[in-house]
Specification:
The complex is a heterodimer of chains A (about 270) and B (about 290).
Chain A (H helix, E strand, L loop, with lengths): L2 H8 L3 H8 L7 H8 L1 E5 L12 E8 L2 E8 L5 H6 L7 H16 L4 E7 L6 H5 L2 H13 L5 E10 H5 L6 E5 L3 E3 L3 H9 L5 H8 L3 H7 L4 E3 L10 H19 L4 H13 L2
Parallel strand pairs in A: 3-4, 4-5, 5-6, 5-7, 6-8
Antiparallel strand pairs in A: 1-2, 2-3
Helix pairs in contact in A: 2-10, 5-7, 9-10
Chain B lengths: L3 H8 L3 H8 L15 E3 L6 E3 H6 L15 H8 L6 E3 L14 H12 L5 E8 L2 E8 L10 H16 L4 E7 L7 H20 L4 E9 L1 H4 L8 E4 L10 H8 L10 H6 L5 E2 L5 H11 L3
Parallel strand pairs in B: 5-6, 6-7, 7-8, 8-9
Antiparallel strand pairs in B: 1-2, 3-4, 4-5
Helix pairs in contact in B: 2-4, 6-7
The chains are: A alpha/beta (about 270), B alpha/beta (about 290).
């Protein structure tokens, strides 16, 4: 890449980062699972009603330790996008995530979640099946966990649909990831009744990794190569691996109660 | 015969609460303003004398549509005379994102509603049982969840936990406070964590959903009650009906996301009419007394 382009990508507008966060070639949960973890065993279904493919997860090893890893799955290519509902979970997806996390608690496995969603699915059946209730139960449950939870915002993290798998001890964000109360489009629609002002919204929302680090929401920023993570995924996997190892080993010396207390404190002070 | 609600209002000797409740009535936007004698129903359009609305606790005397009531007015209907005590009054709106025109908007609303935030926290007694009651007020930026709202709700939960008394939250919210961005979102985690701790300690939480309860409030403390009640006809959901309609590109069924619909789909214990609100709560509270 030319030096000019490198310089340019160092100083992106928030609206441009939004586009990078949604780049179709950006590494997704399934890529992280394949390249950062080993021995992955996928667990499907909420075991109540349905299998929601917008949440992907299971058990794996990270540097030898068994962990539970899960996250939003957008899918690649139109067919898979549709099967994964573009990464917008229904209540069944959140209940599946909760089921996996309950097992992590039972078997004392650290939990690693990857956040990348436009939001929870605003659909008719999703409402009938209790979208709000499913998200709320996850928030309450995650706050009670005695195993470390690390959330990595890898793409876009929007609304309660992102938070529902993101009540973590540590929140990491990739350099070009965004995390916000709502998509910039939705935000502009609500405040100004004009979704085309999304770029402007992105500016005032403070949704970039840097903004959120300053706000104390994001604990660590994982660097991407200039131009975005899709330009060199291998470099990104190495960075993610490095950050995870550092944090997980730090939590190994803490008692289950301390781990929970650590998470409670983080949210109590926001 | 005098209506039971009227008697209740008369019973309240608490001057502070009564005064606030007076300025809280439907139709009066300013604390000091001479209200007109008639109020028209927003649904059926028919008018009735203010005193008749009051007798019906602001449920339309003609068609039964539920009019919104202010937080203090509701507390006035609820508490035993002279037991109301406001909590965490000093907490005010913050502006964490330094959002354009937000402070001005809040100042304006403070003047109009006499409220400092979209929730009023209190403790008092209902049927002789001490409780913490938090009431959201949709007149203040649609009852949206701000950092201050999240903080007041969390402190209210912690007070109930500390004093070992039941907690009642009346929700009314359009969802997140856009002007506070991520800080608004994080209040969902904060309040849910507080409810979880309260629940682990054996606390009773009655969640009372009123029109409208949506977005981040639905997806956090409002749906974490041991007992979930709702006022008739209240809109309750996560996503708003317009967004859903645009997403799925078809018409929504009649009564979708209303209290009765949620009851049918298994998310509500009971729908409670406003005139029975106090009695129902006394029944539930006393069933949890040892």
């Amino acid at each position: 890449m030319s030096q000019e382009l490198v310089d340019k990508t160092r100083d992106l507008e928030p609206g441009e980062r939004v586009l990078l966060a949604r780049h179709p070639n950006r590494p997704h949960i399934e890529d992280f699972v394949e390249n950062v973890f080993t021995d992955f065993f996928e667990q499907k279904g909420d075991h109540l009603y349905d299998e929601d493919r917008s949440i992907f997860g299971g058990i794996a090893r990270f540097h030898g330790r068994p962990v539970t890893v899960l996250g939003h799955k957008k899918g690649r290519g139109m067919e898979e996008n549709i099967a994964c509902n573009f990464g917008m979970p229904c209540p069944e997806g959140y209940r599946k995530a909760k089921r996996l996390m309950e097992q992590a608690e039972k078997f004392h496995r650290p939990i690693i979640t990857f956040i990348d969603t436009p939001g929870a699915y605003p659909g008719l059946e999703a409402e009938e099946h209790g979208q709000g209730e499913a998200i709320a139960k996850n928030l309450a449950f995650m706050s009670s966990l005695h195993v470390p939870v690390i959330s990595i915002v890898s793409g876009e993290g929007n609304s309660g649909g992102a938070l529902a798998i993101g009540v973590a001890n540590k929140i990491l964000m990739l350099e070009n990831a965004i995390y916000s109360v709502l998509s910039p489009e939705g935000f502009a629609t609500i405040l100004w009744k004009d979704s085309t002002r999304a770029g402007e919204a992105a500016k005032v929302m403070k949704l970039t990794a840097e903004d959120l680090k300053e706000a104390g929401v994001c604990d660590e920023i994982i660097p991407e190569v200039p131009g975005g993570a899709q330009e060199n995924p291998v470099a990104l996997y190495k960075e993610v691996e490095k950050a995870l190892e550092k944090i997980l080993s730090a939590y190994e010396s803490m008692s289950p109660e301390q781990i929970r207390e650590d998470r409670l404190k983080k949210y109590r002070n926001i | 015969m005098q209506s039971p609600i009227k008697t209740l209002v008369d019973m309240v000797k608490d001057r502070d609460l009564k005064q606030k409740a007076l300025s809280d009535r439907v139709g009066s936007t300013a604390p000091i303003k001479i209200p007109s004698a008639f109020i028209a129903c927003k649904k059926c359009g028919r008018r009735a004398l203010r005193v008749r609305w009051e007798e019906h606790a602001f449920v339309c005397p003609h068609c039964g549509t539920y009019g919104p009531i202010g937080a203090y007015y509701r507390l006035n209907l609820l508490y035993d005379a002279g037991t109301f005590q406001e909590l965490d009054k000093e907490i005010e709106v913050k502006d964490p994102l330094d959002f354009p025109e937000y402070r001005e908007k809040v100042k304006d609303l403070e003047k109009k509603t006499g409220l400092k935030e979209a929730v009023v926290s209190s403790k008092g007694q209902i049927g002789g049982i001490p409780v913490v009651t938090l009431v959201m007020d949709s007149r203040f930026l649609m009852g949206s969840m701000s950092q201050a709202v999240g903080e007041k709700i969390t402190r209210g939960i912690e007070t109930a936990d500390r004093e070992h008394c039941p907690l009642i939250i009346f929700s009314a919210s359009g969802g997140a406070r856009m002007q506070e961005g991520i800080f608004s979102l994080m209040q969902m985690a904060k309040t849910s964590a507080a409810i979880e701790l309260f629940s682990e300690h054996g606390g009773l939480f009655i969640s009372f959903l009123t029109h409208p309860t949506t977005g981040g409030v639905t997806a956090s403390f409002a749906t974490l009650g041991d007992i979930t009640l709702a006022e008739p006809g209240a809109l309750i959901g996560f996503a708003g009906p317009r967004v859903i309609e645009q997403t799925i590109n078809r018409k929504l069924p009649k009564g979708f996301q209303r209290s009765e619909y949620l009851e049918q789909h298994g998310f509500i214990d009971a729908i409670v009419e406003r005139k029975n609100m106090r009695d129902s709560l006394i029944q539930i509270l006393s069933l949890h007394q040892k």
